[in-house]
Amino acid sequence: IQEIESLGGMAKAIDTGLPKMRIEEAAARRQARIDSGREAIIGINKYRLDKEDPLDILDVDNTAVREAQIRRLEQLRANRDEDRVQSCLEAITNATESGEGNLLALALEAARARASLGEISFAVEKVCGRHKAVIRSISGVYSSEFEDDDVIKEVRQMADDFEDMEGRRPRIMIAKMGQDGHDRGAKVIATSFADMGFDVDIGPLFQTPEETAQDAVDNDVHIVGFSSLAAGHKTLLPQLVDELNKRGRGDILVAIGGVIPAQDYEFLREHGAVAIFGPGTVLPVAAKKLLETLTAHVQDEDND
Ligand code: B12
Fold first, then answer.
1. Residue nearest atom 39 in ligand 1 by C-alpha distance
2. Alpha carbon of 142 to ligand 1 centroid (Å)
3. Which ligand 1 atom sits closest to the C-alpha of 35?
4. CA dihedral defined by 228, 230, 235, 238, rounded to 10 degrees?
5. Strand 253-258, strand 171-175: pairing
6. What is the number of the ligand 1 atom nearest to the C-alpha of 187?
7. Cα–ligand 1 centroid distance for 130 (angstroms)
8. Distance 229 CA to ligand 1 centre (A)
9. What's the whole-number average pLDDT of the chain?
């Protein structure tokens, strides 16, 4: 609270990214306590079932939903008064430019004329540009809270060995794609992997598979670690693998983690996932597994 007050209040503090960073630090600390067994979550890191029964879940066909939404949007646009819509949108752009008028009232009027949210926000964006969140990462928090330091040391040693072999540290990009805004886990994974000796890139939220693949290629990462909590995995993972192949970088490994039901694992493996890390993943164990897979993969390539 003192920190926030010294910055001049919560709104100003949010602008500096401080509250989000503190939340992420707390999440990394908590994950370290869970991973080291100090904090028990029954069924996740203690008293796990030998065999989990498959969950009865609603399997949504994302492509069909997208196509249906596009059809609805086309129908909406065909049946509205286009002149009215355009003048409402122009009024929003003008008000944004001049700083005069109530943007919310104008947005409501545009919505009543059946302008879409995308069109309304674009009318503002034309003048203001699009907000880009600054991604801040934290370091040292995960490893300092982890009790069994030996595991972390072992993974760090493996990362050092990898560097000796390849001339650079193992590099992973933690990616969020689609409309999945759950970035807490991605940040925890990024900070813990950095603490264990990886070079880590964090992609922004809401990327398309094309953007993720391009960033992965531009930064020459060894692995893309896709974090998926909003059920987009069956659509987005195959697209990401395709996009990497299109860029001639099928050698970049793709791993995935998050809220992924067991019945989808086979599909994901068939479409190119080298490893899958569901809820309850102990991060040093995941990091070790990825380093083993990467080392074997690099040695295979060197032999070819
Ligand atoms: C916190 C949370 C939120 C927060 C997110 C805050 C933030 N900035 O991240 C808020 C409140 C905003 C939120 C919103 C929503 N949420 Co929510 N949320 C959760 C919750 C409770 C915890 C997620 C979390 O942070 N876990 C902690 C982190 C550390 O764990 P993790 O990300 O799973 O990662 C671990 C592993 O999965 C693995 N892992 C994951 N990725 C990777 C990647 C690599 C490379 C590796 C090695 C490992 C790995 O390692 C980690 C450590 O073990 C989950 C339920 C749950 N218990 O999982 C629901 C959940 C994910 N949410 C859900 C839903 C439905 C939503 C909403 C759509 C709700 C709504 N109707 O508005 C919105 C969507 C917003 C959006 N645009 O995406 C559903 C998703 C269902 C699904 N997938 O089919 C869940 C599962 C809840 C449920 N049971 O229904 N949510």
1. 257
2. 19
3. 53
4. 0
5. unpaired
6. 29
7. 25
8. 5
9. 93
Residue 135 Cα distances to 12, 53, 184, 208, 284, angstroms: 17, 38, 12, 17, 23
Summarize pLDDT for 60-96 with one digit per residue, the tens: 888 899 899 999 999 999 999 999 999 999 999 999 9
Over the chain (304 residues), the average pLDDT of each successive run of 10 is 86 88 94 92 89 84 91 95 98 97 97 96 95 82 84 94 96 97 95 96 96 98 98 95 98 97 94 95 96 94 80
Q: In the structure, which protein residues have their CB atom closer than 6 angstroms to any atom of ligand 1?
A: 31, 179-185, 188-189, 225, 227, 229-231, 255, 257-259, 277-279, 281, 283, 286
What ligand 1 atom has the least distance to the C-alpha of 57?
84
The two tokens of residue 190 are 């990024």
Ligand 1: centre distance to CA 293 (Å)? 26
How many Å lie between the centroid of ligand 1 and the Cα of residue 73?
29
